[in-house]
Amino acid sequence: MLPRRSIIPEEFAFSPALLSPIHRRPVFRDRVNKARFIAKSGACNLSHKNIREQGRFLQDVVTTLVDLKWRFTLVIFSMTFLCSWLLFGMFWWLVAFAHGDLDPNRKPGVEQCVTNVNSFTSAFLFSIEVQVTIGFGGRMITEQCPTAIMLLILQNIIGLIINAVMLGCIFMKTAQSHRRAETLIFSRHAVIAVRNNRLCLMIRVGDLRKSMIINAVVHLQVVRKTTTPEGEVIPIHQIDVQTESAVASNSIFLLAPLIICHVIDKDSPLYDLSAMELQCNDLEVIVILEGVVETTGISTQARTSYVTEEILWGHRFVPIVTEEEGVYSVDYSKFGNTVKVATPRCSARELDEKPSILIQTLQKSELSQQNSLRKRNSMRRNNSMRKSNSMRRNNSTLAVPKVQFFTPEGGPNLVVT
């Protein structure tokens, strides 16, 4: 049997020399399955499993009710009132039964403990009227039964406690602090660029509401997997990162969108990372903004995070605050826009050891800007020359031709019209 010939001709086949290992630059791909500690919306990407002591959640009932979803909260809210009405309805029925009010053969002169309570249904209706203070005048308590008076007092006290707890939970659930955090926004990407001759990590934050956040504080953390010298693996190692306003306790005046700057110095966990090493590194920058809501006085917190794919090296945020007719205007359509700037690709450590790298980078960028400016000027000159030549040609074609007239004597007379 003849061997099957290859589809590729032999002259185009790879030679053994070409199959030798070739040194190539590493290709970075998006890590789709990479888990992040904090989502972009601020939610913690963490699941709790195998919790054996579930009873601890019942010791803090209020927090448990507030943390539940709305459908479970409404079901518990309704069932609590319904069960209390049924329970005290049964008690009122027992009081009526013990006093003989349910006996159809009772003496006509004997007064009932509760008038017009002749069945469990009427006892249940009277329980609802007592607890929610709905009185229709058909059923009422009398002074014949001290037990019924005590039961009335007990039901009123328990009903007030249930109302206070349930309404308080509903109010706390509707006025949660993270609702205010929905209008606190962060830039989609973080950037690394040179500011004041130092490499800096910059993030933009803003507030969409006119009501301010009082005592706003920004915290930065770097979360990454580390291994100690003893061989212990720490999957989530949180490292605090200082911002540029660390001297003033990180307090910011969030009147307009601000750029939070972290100087990458020797105390920074990003000090030894270059642009290429940052893409290979598995770390996450967490940003936490805390403050007090001016209108309600409730503390709020907004969170977000940036993985290495969301950190742009050599970029800078565009300005979005302008002055228009004596009023400062903020253009939120450009909130996350960035522009490329001249930035060394080396690490901050190398930049501190060799300051000439920054000077060379700035000189190269200045030369490139000058060259681009020259090219633009030359292109403009060429375009202007082309336009002038075309206009001259058009004028020459539109010029009036010369006409020669002959006199009768035969002498030519040149007349231009």
TrEMBL record:
GO molecular function, one term: ATP-activated inward rectifier potassium channel activity
Transmembrane segments annotated in the record for this chain: 74-95, 148-171
Compartment(s) where it occurs, according to its Swiss-Prot or TrEMBL record: Membrane
Broad class of where this protein is predominantly found: membrane
Chain ranges of the Inward rectifier potassium channel C-terminal domain: 184-354
Biased composition (Low complexity): 380-394
Keyword NADP in annotation: no
Site feature: Role in the control of polyamine-mediated channel gating and in the blocking by intracellular magnesium: N163
Family per record: Belongs to the inward rectifier-type potassium channel (TC 1.A.2.1) family.
Protein name: ATP-sensitive inward rectifier potassium channel 8-like
Organism, as annotated: Carassius auratus
